[in-house]
Design a protein that fits this description.
By secondary structure, the chain is α/β, with parallel strands linked by helices. Helices cover 35% and strands 17% of the residues. Keywords: Coiled coil, Hydrolase, Leucine-rich repeat, NAD, Plant defense, Repeat.
């Protein structure tokens, strides 16, 4: 709910009329004062219409009654007129009614209740019909008034007013009407129609979205007819109570009863029986009865029993402790001894709202609503309303007002206090007031904000003060590490401060707090020391620190110093020796500061006496070369001496057994680390970046069982990591970039927790190569480690098959160049297409490679070399679908051209290249080299020569055509002795000679003739020709030559074709015809094969039948022999 009484342009839920003093003006005759009207008055107040004018308690003594009555009518939003039988007898009542009709007329703000009267009598008071007026008490009363000279002049307006309300605004209560139900319905109706617009508080801004948010919670529960518990939480002064009040005013009429219990914390602190008093008020406000409760348990039982069937709205404001909630609204918890039954206190549809600074008080049944700061516009409106009674500051105060809003950081409490403070002050004093406020915040603001601090336990108070004075805006993890070093268990403490809205965490995990909370904390520190700087527990101001050093004022009261010094000043550090309780010392020096004067030589100077109670020592540009021998801080957790002169740390690190962070960035004079570093069993971070004098790392570093991060970046003299580095079981980050280390130890591959290594590109390549050859581990850090490797040489690594490649290999998304030559694998790993950036793949001399399926290769490839893969039988087969459009080199791949047509393979590849507009129009050349069985050229090349030179006539209109490039083809003879660098010389023959040379690349030794196909776009060569005179461009002459004249080999035949857009379609037709022809051949071959197979099967069947017949004949012969023997035997 936002009110904007002085401007119609602002967002507002109030009516357009000015704010009124009274919500309701009650007009009635004394005969209903203590009966119907009394009940109506009570019911209106119960739903929140608190400001009601009723003449028995609103008329001030000693003032003119009539004037006060008339003014009250004018200053009321709504008039409720109770017309009873004797209402017209009173001239006061009739005067009120006439004034009400005059002021409120047709506005809809009049509600008339005709109580036990005949409505027609009121409507007929103006009638002249004597019969109608016979029993009309209202007509008779007006007739009597007409006889009175002092009244007669008003009778006409009184009569008109009675008639108007009787016809327009009538509610009727008969003698048999249930008056309780009527009053309930009447109050609900008037509240719902008018309540939201009249119950306003001046100066509320930004309330609409917050109320809408509360409504959204309630709607969900109301739909299910459940009880809704809402917890409004936030820092002090943020507007929790204001929001709850506004919500109570907005919706209280919708409930059977409502109660706003304000200042619960204060009541419980200041009153002996505070909880009982609050329970009594709760029961009285909702039930209208006074209860003698006596003790809290009895109050709980009464609340539970009386409200169980009622739909109630209860707001508990500023709750501090859980026992306060338990005494007032502990509904819907599980009953003791029963897990499934809830203890119900309130009826369906009830809403219970709690405002608190402590989010931890809100159990799981509460919907949590954090109140946020006002936005800049809302904040300026609120301040302006308090300071100027307007939603905008006067123009001359505009910038000053914005400064105030900025100082208040949009906190409503501060804006309200400062607006009231500055309202009476002249403009010229505002700057002075603001300056004072920045040094000493307004006590009303500090007092309110300090309440949350006062209820923290001692440890949480220390955490709050440390963060406010030193750590606002720092990373949460770093702050926790420092505070935990002080034995604060700070993660739990920070969670408590978050719950109490004393802190917040940004989206980048930084700790933040409101500026005024920061100022409040610093004010607390100052007041605790009674404003004696030397006794102040925390020093954050550089001038204060300098004053302490100069005056040598250090005391045992100082616990922490975190400040920076940015001026060259002379001072002594003797004061530090007196600070025996100092636990944090953090000095940032932007310019070298003279600690002790210009005559001090720091190179051999021992540092100052420091407290052995230190937990954190951070000193940028620490000027001394070593610590005093007495400095043995057993509890030290963090030591940070970046950019310092330190030459030597402790001779025995055992004096700092709790050290977790050792940060020695750019300590350029540090030459060694003592082997006793092995005693630092808790060390997590060791940073030696830019320690250029450091010669080596001690082997004892391997004993640092907790070490997670080791950084020796730019330690150029450190040439070796310690052996057995795998003993660092917890190491996650290793940074050795620009150090003297050239090779990673093999133990690195067995460090399971390692997540990140930073080193040079060559070291990465070497490490990956070594890992693949010898270890093939799949540590999780390896993929991140190799993620930016662009080139990888795995030549002759004995990679025998897919299993030889580790899992991470096919995930190297940045890899552009990969050389797998001279490896014995027969197929590539199946996931190699995961190398999404790969541009060049070399597979030369892979003698066992038999097949290279194009669909398994990444589409990003621009060049593939399979030279001397003598077993390769299939690659870029024109009869198979293919997505590759890359240059290809197939020297001595004789097996390949036995299985597929080399010339058509080259043409099909060229077609795919030309069909890719990005490639054909770019600066990328296309090359294809393949063995050639004969010296015939592809017939697509319409210009051919039997030698290594060819001339072609240019079309006179070629400049106006869609010429896109030039394709060339040439045959090279066998040459088994050497590799050659071939080029093509292009010359214009005509009146103006012009020539250029196009490199064709190196062609290696070969046992047979090869065909080389080259395509180049016309972007550069032919564009330069276009600048010649047209008549000069007569003939193009192409000559293919070896660059080495001593071993020049004749080339030829050769062919050239100027490629136009339409030629791509012709090339596509040629490849399609070839594919179809080959399919026909294969089909015919297949048919012949099938016929041959059928004949063979028939012959086999004949052989089987002959075999069966032969077996049957043999059986017959056997049987005949037996018979013959039987016949012959008797004859003997």
């Amino acid at each position: 709910m936002e009110t904007n009484p002085s401007s119609s342009s602002s967002s507002s839920c109030s009516s357009s009329s000015p704010a009124k003093k009274y919500d309701v003006f009650l007009s009635f005759r004394g005969d209903t004062r203590n009966s119907f009207t009394s009940h109506l008055d009570y019911a209106l107040r119960k739903v929140g219409l608190f400001s009601i004018f009723k003449d028995d308690y609103k008329l001030p003594k000693g003032k003119d009654i009539e004037t006060e009555l008339m003014n009250a009518i004018e200053d009321s939003h709504v008039a409720v007129v109770v017309i009873s039988e004797k209402y017209a007898d009173s001239d006061w009542c009739l005067k009120e009614l006439a004034k009400i009709v005059k002021c409120m007329g047709d506005s809809g703000r009049i509600r008339t209740i005709f109580y036990h009267v005949n409505l027609s009598h009121v409507r007929d008071v103006a009638s002249a019909d004597a019969e109608k007026q016979k029993d009309n008490s209202f007509w008779k009363a007006l007739k009597e008034h007409a006889k009175n000279p002092s009244h007669s002049k008003y009778v006409e307006s009184w009569t008109s007013a009675l008639v108007e309300v009787a016809y327009k605004y009538a509610d009727y209560v008969k003698r048999d009407t249930d008056e309780a139900i009527f009053i309930k319905n009447f109050v609900a109706d008037i509240s719902s129609k008018l309540g939201a617009s009249i119950r306003t508080i001046e100066g509320l801004f930004g309330m609409v979205p917050r109320l809408t948010k509360l409504d959204s919670y309630v709607l969900d529960y109301s739909a299910a007819n459940n009880v809704c518990f809402i917890g409004i939480h936030g820092m002090g002064g943020i507007g929790k109570t204001t929001l709850a009040e506004a919500y109570h005013m907005k919706v209280s009429h919708k409930f059977d009863g409502s109660c706003f219990l304000a200042n619960i914390r204060e009541v419980c602190e200041t009153q002996a029986n505070g909880l009982v008093d609050l329970q009594t008020k709760l029961l009285k406000d909702i039930l209208g009865e006074d209860f003698q409760i006596g003790y809290v348990r009895n109050g709980i039982n009464l609340i539970r029993s009386r409200f169980r069937a009622m739909k109630v709205l209860i707001i508990l404001d500023d709750v501090l402790k859980s026992e306060q909630l338990e005494a007032l609204a502990n509904s819907h918890r599980e009953k003791q001894g029963s897990k499934n039954e809830l203890d119900i206190w309130f009826g369906p549809g009830s809403v219970i709202i709690v405002t608190t600074r402590d989010e931890n008080l809100l159990t799981k049944r509460y919907e949590k609503c954090r109140v946020e700061y006002l936005d800049d516009n809302e904040a300026l409106q609120l301040f302006s309303w308090k300071a100027f009674n307007s939603i905008e500051p006067p123009e001359e105060f505009n910038e000053l007002s914005k400064e105030v809003v900025k100082y208040a950081s949009n906190l409503p409490l501060a804006l309200t206090v400062l607006g009231s403070l500055l309202r009476p002050i002249e403009k010229y004093l505002w700057e002075s007031v603001l300056c004072r406020l920045r040094k000493c915040p307004e006590k009303d603001i500090v007092g309110k904000l300090k309440i949350s601090y006062d209820y923290l336990d001692e440890v949480d108070q220390c955490i709050f003060l440390d963060i406010a004075c030193f750590f606002k805006g720092l990373a949460k993890t770093n702050v926790i590490r420092i505070l935990d070093g002080c034995e604060f268990n700070s993660e739990y403490g920070i969670s408590n401060l978050l719950a109490k809205s004393l802190l917040s965490i940004t989206e980048h995990d930084m700790i933040w707090m409101h500026d005024l909370l920061e100022e409040t904390a610093k004010d607390i520190v100052r007041k605790k020391s009674r404003n004696e700087l030397a006794r102040q527990s925390r020093i954050w101001n550089k001038d204060d620190f300098y004053q302490i050093l100069v005056n040598k004022e250090g005391t045992n009261e100082i616990e922490a110093i975190i400040t920076h010094v940015d001026e060259t000043k002379e001072c002594s550090l003797e004061a530090l020796s007196s600070m025996k309780k100092l636990r944090i010392l953090d000095i940032s020096t932007y310019n070298r500061i003279d600690f002790g004067g210009p005559e001090v030589d720091f190179d051999d100077c021992v540092g100052p006496e420091l407290s052995n109670n230190l937990r954190c020592l951070r000193w940028n540009k620490f000027p001394y070369s070593k610590f005093p021998s007495s400095f043995q801080p057993q509890k030290l957790v963090q030591l940070n001496l970046w950019n310092s002169n330190i030459k030597q740390l402790w001779n025995n690190f055992a004096v700092v057994p709790n050290l977790q962070i050792l940060y020695l960035f750019n300590c350029h004079k540090l030459s060694e680390i003592d082997p006793s570093i092995e005693h630092l069993k808790r060390l997590i971070i060791l940073n030696l970046q830019f320690c250029r004098s450091l010669k080596k790392l001690p082997e004892e570093i391997n004993c640092l069982a907790s070490l997670q991060r080791l950084n020796i970046t730019a330690c150029s003299k450190v040439e070796k990591l310690p052996d057995n580095l795998e003993q660092l079981k917890n190491l996650t980050n290793l940074d050795i970039d620009r150090s003297g280390i050239k090779h990673l130890p093999s133990s690195i591959f067995f460090m399971e927790k390692l997540e990140f290594i930073r080193c040079g590109e060559e070291m990465k390549k070497s490490a990956v190569r070594e890992n693949i050859i010898s270890y093939r581990t799949t540590s999780k850090w390896l993929l991140r480690f190799c993620s930016d490797v662009r080139e990888l040489d795995l030549i002759d690594c004995n990679l025998t098959g897919p299993e030889a490649f580790p899992e991470y290999f096919c995930k190297l998304a940045s890899l552009e160049y990969l050389d797998l030559s001279k490896n014995p694998f027969s197929v590539l790993p199946p996931g190699i297409n995961g190398l999404s950036s790969l541009r060049c793949l070399r597979l030369e001399h892979c003698k066992n490679l038999r097949s290279l399926e194009a669909e398994l290769l990444p589409s990003s490839l621009e060049e593939v070399s399979v030279n001397y893969c003598t077993s390769l039988a299939s690659f870029l087969d024109p009869l198979k679908p293919c997505h590759l459009s890359c240059s290809t080199y197939c020297l001595d791949c004789t097996e390949l051209v036995r299985g597929q047509d080399g010339k058509m393979t080259a043409l099909a590849s060229l077609l795919r290249f030309l069909e890719d507009p990005h490639k054909r129009r770019g600066n990328l050349d296309f090359r294809f080299v393949v063995p050639q069985r004969d010296n015939k050229l592809p017939f697509w090349f319409i210009n051919q020569s039997s030698t290594g030179s060819i001339s072609i006539k240019l079309d006179p209109n070629w400049r106006n055509s869609e010429l896109i490039g030039v394709a060339m083809v040439v045959c090279f003879p066998a040459n088994s002795s050497t590799e050659e660098n071939f080029s093509c010389n292009i010359r214009i023959c005509g009146s103006e000679n012009w020539e250029t040379t196009m490199e064709m690349g190196v062609i290696g030794s070969r046992i047979s003739g090869h065909l080389s196909l080259l395509y180049r776009s016309c972007n550069d060569t032919l564009e330069r020709i276009q600048h010649l005179e047209p008549q000069s461009c007569d003939t193009l002459e192409f000559s293919f030559l070896s660059a080495d004249d001593e071993h020049s080999v004749s080339c030829g035949p050769c062919g050239v074709r100027l490629v136009y857009e339409g030629d791509i379609e012709e090339l596509e037709d040629i490849t399609s015809i070839y594919i179809n022809d080959q399919k026909d051949v294969q089909s015919s071959h297949s048919q012949r094969t099938r016929s041959s197979t059928a004949a063979n099967e028939e012959m086999e069947q004949m052989r089987q039948r002959i075999s069966i017949l032969e077996q049957a004949l043999e059986t017959v012969r056997t049987q005949l022999n037996v018979v013959e023997a039987t016949i012959i035997q008797p004859r003997q």
